[in-house]
Amino acid sequence: MKKGMFIKKVLALMILICLVFLLAYNIENGKNTDISTMDVATSVTNDSNAGSINNNDTNITTGSGATEASNTEASNTEASNTEASNIKTTDNGDTNIKDTVTENINQEQTIEKQVDLILSKMTLEEKIYQMFVITPEALTEEETVTSAGDITKNALEKFPVGGLVYFAKNIVDANQLTSMLRNTQDYANEAEGMVVFTCIDEEGGKIARIGNNSAFHVRTFTDMVSIKDTEMAYEVGTTIASYLKTYGFNVDFAPDADVLTNPENTVIGSRSFGSDPVRVTDMALAVAKGLKDNGIIATFKHFPGHGGTLGDTHEGFAYTNKTYEELQQSELVPFAAASNSIDMIMVAHISVPNIIGDNTPSSLSKKMVTDILKNDLNFSGLVITDALNMGAITDKYTSAQAAVMAVEAGDDLLLMPENFKEATDALISAVRNNEISESQIDESVRKIIKAKLSIN
Fold it and tell me: pLDDT tens, 395-449?
């Protein structure tokens, strides 16, 4: 009996121990099951027919695949949106190819390719017109122009010239001048798709169309010869540029880079910075920098140097007997220094028989313009003639002859021919008759367009 009770107690104790182990096992197993269930819950749907997932590796794979698919879809959507944003459409939903091409060129292509694109759309006549800078009177055939309205607009549509030059008679007061130039620029942009050169002679001193007009209250300068140093010269440039820009000009036919080697020369006189070629060079470069830094294209003048000449090209024949070597020691020094920083050089109608061999004006001489200025002095900017209505030209050449000779010489811009229509017609005919190659015209117009695109 006692033995049976003992056995029962042992069995009960064993059962109790087994129950404890079983309970402990179930508790532990239950925890694992809960964790497994949570893992699975994060990677499967609530579909009751979904197959069971046996291990955590499957969970990781399934989760990664879902994320990758989601990212791919998002990436494709983003790419689609980007592509859509790059395509402009018109109101009727058609792709506006012109706007897209223009936008791509502005963003991705070099300025040279922009120039080539503009040039490729121009007719021969449009190219020729771009090579002329004329007065608003020559453009509109009006006696005196002080405003720009429909007559100016229609004239620019018919003759989209490269530039217009304004004189004292065109300038009344600040409001009138600003309005006239703003309207003119708007019309030019409509007609040509780019700005027109708006030019003026504003050297400071006695040649100052605005500075010498009492209706304007701008800072003025007595003359250039009294400018003390390059700091003051730079100030001259910045001062002039600030008001020219305000009124709407973008080109100044200044500074005067003539070395005054002939004391009896009254054409240049105090417009020059003096007789020392180094001083003249430094001062002229400083003025030009002041202009350029403030958005105005500067023009060195009057190549090959008007400071040592006898006579006045405004009235008729003017010349110098100096040799090339002599000019290199003095008059040509400023122009030789201009090759790296000056955008435009004006060529005078001076005759230099000991260089050319005859009395052909420098502006019409290939020897002077192409061989010396462009090749020897390495000038690659714009070359503009002095006014072609001066006596040195009109006494000997017709407008047609002068225009053809100027382009053959290598000039890029022709300033104020006596008869604009005659000059343009002659150049168009010369190209069509193969007297002048269209590639030469393109070379000049390419430089003109490039300069215009640089104007801000």
Answer: 999 999 999 999 999 999 999 999 999 999 999 999 999 999 999 999 999 999 9
Q: 363 lies in a domain?
A: yes
Residue at 165 is within a domain:
yes
Confirm if 133 and 199 have CB atoms less than 8 A apart. Answer: yes
Per-residue pLDDT of 151-193, as tens digits, reads 999 999 999 999 999 999 999 999 999 999 999 999 999 999 9
Using an 8 Å Cβ cutoff, are 147 and 439 in contact? Answer: no
Which of 262, 322, 125, 287 has the alpha carbon at shortest distance from 205? 287
CATH number at residue 414: 3.20.20.300
Give the separation between CA 103 and CA 191, rounded to whole angstroms.
20
In the predicted model, is pLDDT for residue 48 greater than 50? no
The model's pLDDT over 229-270, given as tens digits with 9 standing for 90+, comes to: 999 999 999 999 999 999 999 999 999 999 998 888 878 888
State which amino acid sits at residue 12: A
- What is the span of the domain harbouring residue 360? 122-453
Contacts of 144 (CB under 8 A, 6+ apart): 137, 169, 170
Is residue 429 within 8 A of residue 409, CB to CB? The reply is no
The residue length of the chain stands at 456
Between CA 456 and CA 448 the distance in angstroms is 15
Helix boundaries (H) for 262-379: 277-293, 324-329, 333-336, 353-356, 366
Q: Is residue 13 part of a domain?
A: no
Separation between Cα atoms, residue 299 and residue 296, nearest integer Å = 10
Instruction: Give dist(CA 345, CA 373) in Å, integer.
Output: 9
Q: How confident is the model at residue 19 (pLDDT cuts 50, 70, 90)?
A: low
- Residue 361: strand, helix, or coil: strand
Q: Specify the pairing of strand 197-200 against strand 251-252.
A: parallel
Asked if residue 148 lies in contact with residue 183, where contact means CB atoms within 8 angstroms, the answer is yes
| CA–CA distance, 425 with 129 (Å, rounded to integer) | 10
Query: What six digits make up the tokens of 98?
Result: 């012109």
Choose among 223, 325, 347, 225: nearest CA to 275: 225
Residue at 376 is within a domain: yes
DSSP reduced 3-state for 197 = strand
Q: Give how many domains the chain has, as a whole number.
A: 1
